[in-house]
Design goal:
single chain; alpha+beta; 8-stranded mixed β-sheet; 4-stranded mixed β-sheet; 12 helices
Length: about 550
């Protein structure tokens, strides 16, 4: 006969119930996975767009991460963030994700290592040399903060080191951590997209030639199908998702403006990179010659005004600028050429609170003008690019000479922050609404009011122009300054804007993720160090002692009864 009041039987039954409960929880957990993100900024929570992208994958994703080896602490933190994000991707992906970590510095031979490094550089993962202090000595290490993502037999490189150059190294790494989810998700989206979007680069108005925008077209070709097209060759613009107008110098006809306008009204996207003035730099170095910038009449002012912005006829000088080679004298029988700050080349590191420019590195402008907004009902205007507060505005006719900027001081730059690039979005009204329509255009489907769309206007036609090598005449990447040997983020800005415009899923919103840096107060930590050391050692022991005393008292009271 079973004695149900037996303590031994009660213990066995309790143990059995505990084991059965754990087994059920294990079975339940295999089918229903969940995690709790208790961080304040939800750093381990993927955006809904990223989750939808991963749930729609049809084949397994492979990732090779090259951030390994003997890394400085900051890059160890970046690697940890990447691995944590990959784990989240792995659990969210419908078809699974496999990743492995590789140290490119550990290869069988120096030749194999150099070939491997060259392959990574071609994939957009250049090596980064960092310095660390060990045993009171500075040690240089080479790291590869990137990965190659493979999906459906195709692969793309991902460079995670995206922080701005104007901040500290810690801030740059933190910005890179904030962008890990977006960089990985954008690579997967690029590989999984069934058909590329079509980008048209407008020709026929003395725009930049093919070599001047070779860096731009090469950058765009990695993600889009790019075509050079003339507005005059077609009655209407169809078959494109976005049009880029890059540095024209000749007038647009009314028919050309009508085609651009109706393309926008139909939901197409427009990107304008325009100069309001033109200057001949060959004459700028001549100290004895007056060199003035003259106005450029593109016949686009009324179109932009209708959409909500105006480019002013001036040049902005900024104390935060790039450089230009200047002959400062003679060194023997040769001219002495030195790099001097050139205020006409503002370096822009002041951005709006917008996902297209979040954590963006500095961009490089050349002879940029200020912009104003005008009333346009229903249109949101985002000032994406802004100068520093230390500027000087030179109105037309603007004199541009090297000698005129040699003796400038900070007192000369008192004009304040100026906007030089705007993103406009909303349902635009046509310039030709309630007007006579131009001749020789297709007016059968005229739209006076358009579908929701976006327009980017940057008051610098040189923003997309790449410099060329003097020795080989080969094009540098867009945004590369050959004088200062600096790579600016002009290309990243263009890609971000196009991603924002053309991605219906709005994956770029994943760039809004923030990761807060919470450093210790070192002074307070040093003052209270002894107190916290004692508490960390004594409190656990005190809790164990109190628990033991209470348990003994309870145990004695129970068995005395």
């Amino acid at each position: 006969m079973v004695n149900w009041e037996s303590k031994k039987l009660t213990d066995y039954l309790g143990l059995g119930i505990l084991l059965a409960t754990l087994s059920l929880l294990g079975l339940f957990g295999n089918d229903y996975f969940f995690r709790l993100d208790l961080t304040e900024e939800k750093r381990y929570t993927l955006s809904p767009t990223t989750e939808n992208l991963l749930e729609e994958t049809t084949e397994e994703i492979y990732v090779e991460l090259y951030l390994d080896g003997d890394l400085p602490p900051g890059f160890i933190r970046l690697r940890k963030a990447i691995i944590e994000t990959l784990e989240e991707f792995k659990h969210q992906s419908a078809s699974g994700l496999t990743y492995r970590i590789i140290d490119p510095n550990k290869t069988s031979s120096e030749r194999a290592r150099n070939e491997f490094i060259q392959k990574l550089a071609e994939k957009g993962i250049p090596p980064t040399d960092v310095f660390a202090t060990e045993n009171a000595q500075q040690v240089q290490r080479r790291v590869f903060p990137g990965a190659i993502v493979t999906y459906r037999g195709e692969e793309v490189g991902v460079n995670f080191l995206k922080g701005g150059r104007m901040g500290s190294a810690e801030e740059a790494l933190n910005q890179s951590i904030e962008g890990v989810e977006y960089e990985l998700a954008a690579a997967i989206q690029q590989l999984s997209r069934p058909a590329k979007k079509r980008i048209g680069i407008v020709q026929g108005h003395n725009e930049w030639d093919s070599l001047d925008i070779a860096g731009l077209t090469g950058l765009l070709n990695d993600r889009y199908d790019v075509f050079r097209m003339r507005l005059s060759d077609r009655p209407k613009v169809i078959g494109f998702d976005a049009l880029i107008v890059a540095g024209p110098k000749d007038k647009f006809t009314e028919a050309d403006k009508y085609k651009l306008d109706q393309f926008l009204m139909s939901g197409g996207k427009l990107l304008f990179f325009l100069n309001s003035l033109y200057v001949n730099m060959d004459s700028a170095t001549n100290a004895e010659q007056n060199n003035f910038a003259i106005a450029v009449d593109l016949n686009l002012d009324d179109l932009l005004f209708k959409y909500g912005v105006r480019i002013n006829g001036n040049y902005i000088q900024d104390i935060n600028s790039g450089f230009y080679p200047v002959v400062t004298g003679n060194f023997g029988d040769r001219p002495d050429i030195r790099l001097m700050p050139w205020p006409f080349y503002p370096v822009i590191n002041n951005f709006a609170n917008h996902p297209t420019v979040r954590n963006l590195d500095a961009v490089w402008t050349r002879f940029v003008s200020s912009m104003d907004t005008v009333r346009a009902d229903g249109i949101k205007k985002h000032p994406l690019l802004m100068t520093s507060p230390y500027t000087r505005v030179i109105t037309a006719p603007a004199q541009v000479r090297i000698n005129d900027v040699r003796d400038l001081t900070p007192r000369d730059f008192q004009s304040g922050t100026k906007a030089v690039g705007y993103l406009l979005e909303g349902s635009f009204s046509s310039l030709f609404k309630n007007r006579f329509l131009p001749d020789l255009v297709d007016t059968t489907e005229f739209r006076g009011d358009g579908f929701p769309s976006q327009v980017l206007v940057v008051a610098d036609g040189d923003f997309v122009r790449n410099e060329k090598s003097v020795q080989t005449n080969q094009a540098f990447p867009v945004g590369f300054d050959p004088y200062d040997n600096q790579q600016f983020a002009n290309g990243d800005f263009i890609i971000n804007v196009l991603q924002y415009m053309l991605d219906e899923q709005n994956l770029i919103l994943a760039r809004n993720k923030t990761v807060q840096i919470r450093p210790l107060d070192r002074v307070k930590a040093e003052q209270e160090k002894t107190l916290w050391q004692v508490l960390n050692i004594a409190l656990p022991l005190l809790f164990v002692l109190i628990f033991g005393v209470v348990w003994q008292l309870f145990y004695r009271a129970k068995y005395r009864r």
